[in-house]
């Protein structure tokens, strides 16, 4: 039995929940520390993560402390997924998982984040950047839908850390876009994407994690 | 002697040049195919890269074809850096390299890209998004400078794929920001960042690659 990993998280931000989903999938024990945004960009947290963002982890079993959700889920798979239930040991599939994980990190997360900023948080609703990032989100849905047509998962015949990594931002589209999302008719226009996302949400580890997020985000504690 | 890898690239975009730098560093033979943007988002290129972006590689030695620059440089290091000149085999350093590579992919590239869009390419100069992305670039410079203070490289005592990966976007700041960059006084305000970036530019493989990019971008052929 390994000692629990410490996961530095936040109630509403999507990226720490990606790590929590992978920890739950792999049955790795962990304790969550929920951070206030105000405490991230100063010591002692900056000593752990100079980038001042969550997630970060401390693993007492290996002494390894790292940040960046993409790096963390790769670390967890390489360290704890010894049966390769969520990963591939070698071959093209190993690198296809990396490819999709990097696409999630660089192509989904930042653009969904900008979409959220200009649709929800910026003081004014500015037409040009809002349209720009709405189109970027649609482009990601198009790419995922095209890649998933005729397939259940992004790589090979099983769910991997790459699939899981897309769940939190995709599931937040309703919050980000509100009524606009209905007008996009995701189920009709991106059917393979839609079926895949629903299948991921139905996984017990993902479902448990997302329910915990909703409870914490609504102020109900963990 | 391995057969040459095919690198799908573009004259002006920064990300394929990151891959070229790593190939040069590792002395791996490769041929570059320069693509027009108009040909990326349709077949046959979408058959290779459903995301319709460069870079992508085809490696005839392993039969592995992948896209996303972060995944490609990890693949190249794991396949061809058998002496671990640009990577670490194990331990905390292995995952710290992943951490910085994912930060480059998710934290530097997309934000520098938005900074370029609103400073250079969007039809109008819009104050709010331009200021937003200028501030994001400064934040990346702050994080890198803080991490590099008292150190020569991001991880351990050697240059890795993580360091190299930051070069193209950082070197493009002059093009993106023009005179504005001088007002930021990078050398004074981010001295550890500045020294690191200059040391990376002076590496023969990096220098050769960037000179080739400048030649191609100016229409002079490869």
TrEMBL record, chains A, B:
<dbReference type="InterPro" id="IPR004046">
    <property type="entry name" value="GST_C"/>
</dbReference>
<dbReference type="InterPro" id="IPR036249">
    <property type="entry name" value="Thioredoxin-like_sf"/>
</dbReference>
<protein>
    <submittedName>
        <fullName>Glutathione S-transferase</fullName>
    </submittedName>
</protein>
<dbReference type="Pfam" id="PF02798">
    <property type="entry name" value="GST_N"/>
</dbReference>
<dbReference type="InterPro" id="IPR004045">
    <property type="entry name" value="Glutathione_S-Trfase_N"/>
</dbReference>
<dbReference type="Pfam" id="PF00043">
    <property type="entry name" value="GST_C"/>
</dbReference>
<feature type="domain" description="GST C-terminal">
    <location>
        <begin position="90"/>
        <end position="219"/>
    </location>
</feature>
<feature type="domain" description="GST N-terminal">
    <location>
        <begin position="3"/>
        <end position="84"/>
    </location>
</feature>
<dbReference type="InterPro" id="IPR040079">
    <property type="entry name" value="Glutathione_S-Trfase"/>
</dbReference>
<comment type="similarity">
    <text>Belongs to the GST superfamily.</text>
</comment>
<dbReference type="InterPro" id="IPR010987">
    <property type="entry name" value="Glutathione-S-Trfase_C-like"/>
</dbReference>
<dbReference type="InterPro" id="IPR036282">
    <property type="entry name" value="Glutathione-S-Trfase_C_sf"/>
</dbReference>
